[in-house]
Every structure is written in structure tokens, then in C-alpha cells.
Amino acid sequence: MSVNKQLVNKADHYNDPQHNYPQYWEGRDYEHAAEVLALKRLLHGKRFKHALDVGGGYGRLCVVLDAYADRVTLADPSRKQLEFARDFLKDHPQIECRLLQADNLKLQSGSIDLLTMIRVLHHLPAPIAEFFEIARVLSDDGCVVIEVANYTHALNRLKHLFKIKSLPITPVDIRSAENRRADEMPFVNHNPVTVIEQLSHAGLRVERTLSVSNLRSAALKKLMPLRIMLALEKPMQQMFAASYFGPSIFFLAKKCWAGSKRVGLVDPMSRTVFPRI
Predict the structure, then answer these.
(1) DSSP string of 217-239, one letter each residue
(2) By the 8 A CB rule, do 40 and 133 touch?
(3) Is residue 275 situated within a structural domain?
(4) Which of 66, 83, 136, 246 would be a feasible disulfide site paired with 214, CB 3.0-4.6 Å?
(5) How far apart are CA 269 and CA 198, in angstroms?
(6) Digit-coded pLDDT (tens) for 184-197
(7) Is the dihedral of CA 258, 256, 248, 31 positive or negative?
(8) Is the pTM of this model over 0.90?
């Protein structure tokens, strides 16, 4: 497993010695299993030449991708996470690890036929540059799986209903008051409808949707065995997809203008004009 060490790292939060991302996942067996279930459902029956896991951290989901692709690359901007990956992926030496930013993947255009970006969008208040970069590296017949930290989940819908307030279309900063500073990493939840529009502006069309981690609750995890939670989770992912019920939404997208050259596309949130790709 090789690590590209030429880039200047920008992921200060995940490089912090006090932050142990593998340790964060301890006690989150349900959330992990729900995401694996969603990935397998979206990738079932497919085979890929080169899969790229963008922002994949220590490689938690790369092992899943390895069953669907001839080649798997883990791309993450954190040197520390790639060091964790060395240990986590020690039994998967074929998985390559590279120090890369999501908005500058340093890969040949059209060279990736499966790209996943899971638990990354919550750090990207304005992800249009990342979406354009995804579209650039994706092959014309390639697939993208993107996870959205969903602000419009069922509980928030009820809260807004009781307050007679409409749901926001712009990202919502969910950091604590003391952490809402320029030197702190962004942490936002998105409106999935807005994300679909942003993907479309980058030339990516959402073809399938799943509602994931529908039973995410500390109380439920204490009361209900994992196998029962997952047995319920499986039908709920498809059943509640259209209503964006869960706190995590998975999109499977493909290029909607493969091979074309569109000029002057605009980010609907920032009104930034991006050149053709």
C-alpha cells in the first residue's frame, strides 16, 4: 500500500493528535452496517475497473469496494488517516492510498468508473467545486455514490412543522456556538433537493436514492439488538428514500452529459460560474 506524500495537508482536524477517527466508530456498529448495506444494494450486480473512495479516512469502506472493483484507491487529505489506513488495510495490500483533496484529485479525466464520497459532504458547505472534479475524473459510464448529511430528516421536519417554519434550502451549520469560528472545520447538514440540483449543474444525474441509518438513536441502540435494527433498516432504506426520512441520504448518480462540453455552469447557491470541463 503506497502513500503519496507530496501534497500540503489541509485536513487539520483529522490530523489533530487528539482526534482518533477509528475510535470514533467504536459503538457505531449500526451506522457502519447500515452504510455497508446501502453500498452493497447500490452496487449489486456491477463490476468496475477502478474505484476511488474520496475522503475515505482510514479505509473503513474500501474493503467493501474491493469486492466490486479490480482496483481500489483511497483518497484522503489527512496524513494521519492514511497512517491509520496502513494498519486497517494491512490485509488488503492491493488498495492504494493517496493524499488528495476532493476538489483536486490529480487523476486523469475519465479514469474512474466508480467514485464514492461518504461522510464528507458535511464538511463542505459549498460542494460545487468537488462535484465538478468528480464529474471530470468519472468515466462516461461511471457511477458515483454520494452520502448527504440530511437536515430534512423526519425529526427536523416535525420540529419545523411545530414552529410553522419552512425547511432551509441552504446548508445548516450544526457546530456548537463556541466552534463557529473561521479556524474550525465546517460541519453542516444539507437539503438533499439542493444537493441534487448542485450535482445536476456539475453534469451528474441522481438515478437512485436510499434513506440510511433510519433508526439512528442512542436509546434505540441500547434497547434493540443490532440484528433486529438491521432487519428493519433494510426495507426502510428503499421505503423511505423518496421522503428523505433518515439522517443520511445515499445518492447513486451518473453523468447526464457524457462527452459534451457545457460552458458557464452556475452553482445555484453561490452563483459562481465554472468553466467547461
Answers:
(1) -HHHHHHS-HHHHHHHHHHHHHH
(2) no
(3) no
(4) 246
(5) 8
(6) 888 999 999 999 99
(7) negative
(8) no
